[in-house]
Amino acid sequence: MSATASWSNWAGNVTAHPARLVEPRSVEDVVAAVKQAAERGQRVRVVGAGHSFTPLVATDGTMLRLTHLTGILEVDHARRRVRVAAGTRLYVLNPLLDALGLALPNLGDIDRQGIAGAIATGTHGTGVRRQGIAAAVTGLTLVLADGSVVSVDAASDPELFRAATVGLGAFGVVVEVELQCVPAFRLRALETPGRLDEVVEGYEQLVADHDHVDVHWFPHTDRVLLKRNSRVADDDPGRPQPRWRERLDDDLLSNKLYEVLNRAAAARPSIVPRLNQVSARVLGAKEYTDTSWRVFCTARDVRFRESEYAVPRASLPAVLGELRAWIDGHDVALPIPVEVRSTGADDVWLSTAYERENAYVAVHQYHRMDDGGVFAAFEAMVREHDGRPHWGKLHTLGAEDLGRLYPRFGDVQRVRDRVDPERRFANEHLAHVLGP
Ligand SMILES: Cc1cc2nc3c(=O)[nH]c(=O)nc-3n(C[C@H](O)[C@H](O)[C@H](O)COP(=O)(O)OP(=O)(O)OC[C@H]3O[C@@H](n4cnc5c(N)ncnc54)[C@H](O)[C@@H]3O)c2cc1C
Q1: Strand order, beta sheet including 44-47
Q2: Ligand 1 pocket check: which of 56, 121, 175, 420 to mutate, most ligand atoms within 8 Å of Cβ?
Q3: Which ligand 1 atom minimizes the distance to the CA of 107?
Q4: Ligand 1 touching residue 269 (CB < 6 A)
Q5: I need a labelling partner for 54 at 20 to 30 A (CA). Which of 113, 232, 286, 357 fits?
Q6: pLDDT value of position 190
């Protein structure tokens, strides 16, 4: 426990000076920290791995970091369910599940997040027949504002369960999550260069034919890197990529050399279109087969800022067309690819995929470069398509806008009033997005 710590997020765009930074060693410690904060009149925010770009965890009150609450606590082999301590990082969880012959059904691009943090913002991967990580949650144990510890699921308290799953840390401190896993599986990864127009035109067929389709479009060009991951049988003879290739691609191309190229782009933005042409060509075709989480997750060492919106999948061609026209018509340089993914619908109240099949479009800017207005322009475009912002990524929408986008928003606010009437778990950003 330390007083007046300094904290900043992964991207470095959010900093905070909490009065207390507490690292509880047990659920009882969490209860004590919440009660002490109430006695001192302080607000409480929980931080996971700090990988959100939005100021969700910023506080000048008590910041809780659940570093010590980690690991799998219980396994129900028959139902393939696990209870996991909320501070467990995904890179710790995935191998532990693997050792049990289990896996999460889908994952995002990286594995640095805490499981509770990933769930709280609706972290997702790609696959129209799959959902985001939150859809795998079957139970939550929370420490509420009054210090009580409650375990909720779809049967015992469906309202609190559905509100607090993608809950932005606004309903209490999640100390345990129960996850519905699937048998461990392997994926065949196929990565090929392609053209944006062709990929957009054939997108519906692509996502029908492959379990997980991930498109990386290099702005200022018509080039994409198309990633298609498909599930294979256990006895499929496919092999992992050789270690040297993995290192070359991940350490060098995606991270070390990539950082050098991005620094060059920051020094001379005019080289970006040419740079993107070259980058798209250098990342050549490759094919390999490996355990699911090794294929889903890669290292991302180059720092950036990001905005990502979910739009109905039918809107994807229009959104990409508008974005491309805007970039081509403005004096802006974007060295990092725009990422396009899709998922199926779910029933989690604040999930971007609530009762909607989405395409996700993510715009990035290298952290040392100005965004040139692209984030604001992008937000204006997707607004016309009922775009729902990723809760952890840059956006300016407030409670009024979000209320129109989420049919159960009023219920979310009602549950919040029930469990946190004094707004122990609030901050300025939460007041903006969920209401005071
Ligand atoms: C390099 C990079 C790659 C990314 N890739 C993807 C991707 O592929 N797909 C995607 O959807 N997103 C992606 N993200 C976004 C990221 O997954 C989310 O922002 C996620 O919330 C980060 O998890 P975290 O553990 O860092 O949580 P934090 O950012 O620390 O916190 C997020 C929220 O969770 C709450 N929270 C955390 N722990 C608890 C708890 N125990 N109890 C209650 N509330 C809690 C916090 O209060 C906060 O509101 C990426 C981000 C980065 C920086």
Answers
A1: 2-3, 20-22, 62-65, 44-47
A2: 121
A3: 8
A4: no
A5: 357
A6: 96
Average pLDDT of the chain, as a whole number = 95
Ligand 1 in contact with 174 (CB < 6 A)?
yes
Residue 190 within any structural domain of the chain: yes
**CATH at 203:** 3.40.462.10
56 CA from centroid of ligand 1 (Å): 9
Query: What's the CA-to-centroid distance between 234 and ligand 1, angstroms?
Result: 32
- The minimum-distance atom of ligand 1 relative to the CA of 53 is 19
Strand-pair partners of 137: 179
Alpha-carbon gap, residue 177 to 169, rounded angstroms: 13
Domain that holds residue 313: 186-389
- Cite the beta strand spans of 132-265 per DSSP E: 137-143, 149-152, 173-180, 182-183, 186-195, 212-217, 223-232
The last residue of one of the domains, among 183, 216, 234, is: 183
Do 256 and 337 share a domain, yes or no? yes
124 Cα to the center of ligand 1, angstroms:
10
Give the sign of the dihedral formed by CA 248, CA 249, CA 250, CA 255.
positive
SS3 category, 120: helix
Q: What is the pLDDT of residue 152?
A: 98
Cβ–ligand 1 distance for 160 under 6 Å, the answer no
pLDDT tens figures, 162-187: 999 999 999 999 999 999 999 999 99
CATH number, domain with residue 133: 3.30.465.10
User: Residue 153 C-alpha to ligand 1 middle, in angstroms?
Assistant: 22
Q: Do 262 and 169 lie in a common domain?
A: no
The answer to the question of residue 363 being in a domain is yes
